[in-house]
Fold Peroxidase.
Amino acid sequence: MPSSNTITLFFFLFFFPILSHSRLSLNFYDHSCPRFHQIIEDIVTSKQISSPTTAAATIRLFLHDCLLPNGCDASLLLSSTPFSPSERDNDINLSLPGDAFDLIVRAKTALELACPTTVSCSDILAVAARNLLVMLGGPHFPVFLGRRDGTVSTSSSVTNHLPKPTMPMTQIVDIFTRRGFTVEEFVALTGAHTVGLTHCSEIFQNRSVDNNVNEKYNDGYNPRFAEGLKKACGNYINDPTLSVFNDIMTPSKFDNVYFQNLPKGLGVLKSDHGLYSDNRTRPFVHKFGEDQDLFFKVFARSMQKLSLLGVKTGRRGEIRRRCDQVN
């Protein structure tokens, strides 16, 4: 018969994630920082107006931070040290747009002036991503607050934990299912590609831009669209900043047009076409393309689920004074 200590340990290990989440609340800063939501809303609105790419960039930053083993702890915001490269400097994260990082710095600076050492960078990122999603016409979802910031960030921890457009669909699906998402939720989260830009280098990776278009795009691309991509990205080797919209139809609006594009061969990335060609994911592409309300419902649920991955509360983290370095 197990001892009482063994039973206590089992209870703690089994229920710790639930206990951690229970420390989060929707009104966490009501007393400690009453202007928390207004400050973030003001900063987010100003930044998005001046730099319209901020919304898609921040949503992507949020996804990359939360999917990593550390969970939603803003470890992706930490800069490298002379002794150790951080998650931020891993190859897959080098293309994360600077607008998202700048937004978090601005919000953190304003909140430190109003409520010193009170609001975590991870909470700022979670709320900013949600607010920007809504600004683009996407669904609203409640963000529970009270996260603490992580103190560890290593480039090596990123490997095989974030999806790359060149990965086989089986590997990408596995990244999400290992984190507790269903295939339907994974497809919904991929719908974030309905906004934002993709660097041409990610489209033409390991391929010569001078290759025959039909030969190059033999995996689901519309031939005319492929020709357009080739022209738009023709100088990407000399100009690595060249980018194209993920959704050529409604690039600045969060909607379900991305899913409508895929059956037409209008996906930008190889992984977009993989989403439609894979038997596990294709049914959800059709469902979300036909029913935007369903897409929004599943996307909102999945984003909230994402926002709770590996959250740190209590003594498991800290409130960073600066988001790019530990205290």
Observations:
- The chain is about 45% helix and 0% strand.
- The first helix runs from residue 4 to 22.
